[in-house]
C-alpha cells in the first residue's frame, strides 16, 4: 500500500535529518494549527520511534488492505485523508495549545470506525472490532503521549465518511 510506503519513507528521511527537529517542523501543535495548515496532514506521517510506526503500519495494513479491497483505492485514500483531517481538527479544538501531536493513528482510528460501520451495515459481526478499537481508545486516555483527541476525531470522521459512502452507493444502485 502506497500510504504505508509514504509513512516509512517520511520516517526514514526524518530520522536521517534529525528526528526531534523533524517532529517540531511537521508535527501538529494546536497553537500552529490555523497558521500552518500543512501540519494537519504532515503530522500524520511523522512517528517518534520504530515501535510507534511499526504499530501504526501494522494496523494500517490489517484494516487498510481489507477496506481498500472493498472500496477501491480512490475511496480508500479519500477515507484515510478525511479521517486524518478529522483527527487533526479534534487536536486543534481539544488539545492543549502547546502540545505536539504526531502519527497516523487518528487516520487509522477512522479506518477502524469505518470498517465497523461497514460490518454493521452488512449485518456482519462487528463487536470484536469495536472491542479492539475501544481498548486502544481507552488506553489513549491513560497512557501519556497518546493523542486521544486525534483518535476520537479520526474515529468520528471515519464513521461519518463511511455512512456517506454507503449512502452514495445505495443511491447509485437505485438510480
Automatic annotation (TrEMBL):
It is found in: Membrane. InterPro entries: Peptidase_S54_rhomboid_dom (IPR022764), Rhomboid-like_sf (IPR035952), Rhomboid_protease_S54 (IPR050925). Its main location: membrane. The chain crosses the membrane at residues 44-64, 76-95, 101-121, 128-146, 152-169. GO terms for molecular function: serine-type endopeptidase activity. One of its GO terms (biological process) is proteolysis. One of its GO terms (cellular component) is membrane. It is a multi-pass membrane protein. Belongs to the peptidase S54 family. This is Membrane associated rhomboid family serine protease.
Amino acid at each position: 500500500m502506497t500510504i504505508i510506503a509514504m509513512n516509512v519513507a517520511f520516517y526514514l528521511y526524518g530520522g536521517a535529518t534529525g528526528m526531534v527537529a523533524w517532529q517540531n517542523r511537521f508535527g501538529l501543535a494546536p497553537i500552529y494549527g490555523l497558521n500552518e495548515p500543512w501540519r494537519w496532514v504532515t503530522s500524520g506521517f511523522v512517528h517518534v520511534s520504530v515501535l510507534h510506526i511499526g504499530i501504526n503500519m501494522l494496523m494500517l495494513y490489517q484494516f487498510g488492505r481489507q477496506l481498500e479491497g472493498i472500496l477501491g483505492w480512490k475511496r480508500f485514500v479519500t477515507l484515510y485523508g478525511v479521517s486524518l483531517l478529522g483527527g487533526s481538527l479534534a487536536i486543534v479544538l481539544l488539545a492543549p495549545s502547546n502540545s505536539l501531536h504526531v502519527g497516523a493513528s487518528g487516520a487509522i482510528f477512522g479506518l477502524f470506525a469505518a470498517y465497523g460501520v461497514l460490518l454493521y451495515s452488512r449485518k456482519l459481526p462487528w463487536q470484536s472490532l469495536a472491542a479492539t478499537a475501544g481498548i486502544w481508545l481507552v488506553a489513549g486516555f491513560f497512557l501519556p503521549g497518546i493523542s486521544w483527541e486525534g483518535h476520537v476525531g479520526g474515529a468520528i470522521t471515519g464513521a461519518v465518511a463511511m455512512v456517506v459512502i454507503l449512502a452514495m452507493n445505495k443511491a447509485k444502485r437505485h438510480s
